[in-house]
């Protein structure tokens, strides 16, 4: 399986739109996508707690692993749904299954990048910060191109619009979820 996805991961860095088209044409079964999504959420939470113990910033709320897993899963699922629906509202042609596939693949790339960042932090902390910035920029670029390929957009500006509106929707959903869970964020020691 890795022999199949590693070349596509390299292609996603060089030619993200073509990588998305390759992924969507592979016929990955829908039944495999949700377990992969769940596994990536769990792995990300574990890595978050491993790396969080090394350099815990002060003044931030600490979320327990179950709350972090729940919010990560909800944010990811909402993102898939909103990228699909907002794109469709902008005359996109993508299907939900394809949006889920591309999101799972992108999350896998992000997780691989975070693993590298974690090991860089152990060996050369300043370099890990620069690598983190590179991951963020590369993820943004790949995501724009994946959305364009998903919905058949010729312009990355339309993809940017989908990303902005989907992100706003995810933020609103997370705010609602956090308030339901009773999560409080502290700023300068004031609740």
Tell me the strand percentage band: under 5%
Radius of gyration: 17 Å
> How does the helix and strand content classify structurally?
mainly alpha
Strand/helix succession: HHHHHHH
- The helix content, as a percent range, equals over 70%
Q: Output mean pLDDT.
A: 89
According to DSSP, the number of beta strands is 0
> What gross morphology would you assign?
globular
Q: How many helices does DSSP assign?
A: 7
Describe the structure.
With 191 residues, the protein is an all-alpha fold. The protein has a domain at 66-183. Helices cover 80% and strands 0% of the residues. It contains seven helices and no strands. The model has no long low-confidence stretch (mean pLDDT 89).
Note the topology:
Blueprint: H1 2-14, H2 16-25, H3 30-52, H4 65-89, H5 96-123, H6 125-151, H7 156-181
Give a quick summary of the entry.
With 191 residues, the chain is mainly alpha-helical.
Notable traits:
single chain; 191 residues; 0% strand
């Amino acid at each position: 399986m890795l022999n199949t996805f590693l070349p596509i991961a390299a292609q996603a860095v060089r030619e993200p739109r073509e990588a998305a088209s390759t992924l969507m044409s592979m016929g990955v079964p829908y039944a495999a996508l949700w377990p992969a999504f769940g596994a990536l959420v769990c792995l990300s939470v574990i890595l978050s707690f491993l790396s969080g113990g090394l350099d815990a910033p002060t003044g931030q709320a600490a979320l327990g692993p179950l709350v972090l897993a729940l919010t990560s899963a909800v944010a990811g699922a909402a993102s898939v749904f909103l990228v699909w629906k907002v794109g469709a509202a902008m005359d996109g042609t993508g299907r939900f299954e394809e949006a889920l596939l591309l999101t799972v693949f992108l999350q896998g790339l992000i997780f691989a990048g975070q693993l590298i960042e974690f090991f860089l932090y152990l060996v050369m902390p300043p370099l890990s910060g620069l690598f983190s910035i590179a991951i963020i920029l590369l993820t943004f670029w790949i995501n724009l191109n994946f959305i364009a390929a998903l919905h058949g957009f010729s312009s990355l500006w339309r993809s940017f619009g989908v990303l902005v509106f989907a992100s706003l929707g995810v933020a609103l959903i997370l705010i609602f979820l956090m308030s339901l869970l009773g999560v409080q964020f502290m700023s300068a020691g004031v609740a």
